[in-house]
Amino acid sequence: MLESQTIPEMDRLNCKMFVRNALRDPEVRHLITSLKSGGCIPPQMKGSDLFRCVRCNSQHQFAGFSASPGDVPQVVLCADQNNNQNDVVLNLVHEMVHFFDWCRGPETFHTEKTIACTEVRAAALSGDCAEFQERMRGHATNVPAAHMTCVRRHALLSVRRSPLATEPEKAINEVFERCYEDTSPFQTYPKRSY
After folding, report:
1. Which of 70-102 are b and which e, b meaning 16 or more Cβ less than 10 Å from the residue's Cβ?
2. Lowest-confidence pick of 39-43, 100-104, 176-180
């Protein structure tokens, strides 16, 4: 794992520990295996090399996916914002879904609709909208389509932050059904996602 020199020692150590523990999570392992088998990362690369801890200094940024030309793509984890193992796993899975989508087609991040699609998929598959998470936020979970409502809300918030956003609601509406139903690389929704 690459580390930023500006991270306080305690944040750096916690981040490394959280990532090491996350590598034992079945969904994280499955995503790493899928990325390797898809040729997105070299087979000999260790899972921990896919993650980089950085200092973000933002209360609204917890993780991100970086695919700079010429570099090996990585999931960037905000060492100063992720304070518990569950949040780290959710954030890693969310960003690894983006990594997987980028692997399927790097054009994934070139239009508002493709960004909307990957955000719908990441929110749906990562656990962002699990019943427990939604109850913690004070949202109703006992209504029909609660998961879909949450996924739509999370995806919309993410798309609005994109520099390509012009009509985020329209983009989400146009891709929602198709992208919500796409559970790749999982065969069905992971247990954590509900």
Report:
1. eeebbbbbbbbbbeeebbbbbbbbbbbbbbbbb
2. 39-43
Q: Which helix (H) or strand (E) holds 2?
A: strand 2-3
Containing 115, the helix (H) or strand (E) segment is: helix 112-126
pLDDT digits (tens, 9 = 90+) for 154-165: 999 999 988 889
User: Which two three-digit tokens encode residue 158?
Assistant: 């993410």
- Catalytic annotation present for 9: no
Distance (Å, whole) CA 83 – CA 71: 28
Q: What is the pLDDT of residues 52-64, one digit of tens each?
A: 888 887 666 788 8
Question: 27, 95, 119, 134: which one is catalytic?
Answer: 95
- Secondary structure (DSSP) of 20-88: HHHTTSHHHHHHHHHHHHTTSS-TTS-GGGGEEEE----TT--EEEE--TTS--EEEEETTT--SHHHH
Cβ–Cβ under 8 Å, residues 93 and 126? yes
User: What is residue 87's predicted lDDT score, i.e. its pLDDT?
Assistant: 86
Q: Which residue has the higher pLDDT, 37 or 131?
A: 37
- Burial class from Cβ neighbours inside 10 Å (0-12, 13-18, 19+) for residue 187 reads exposed
Amino acid present at 59 = Q
For 19, 21, 87, 95, 177, the CA distances from 84, given in Å and listed in that order, are 11, 11, 6, 17, 32
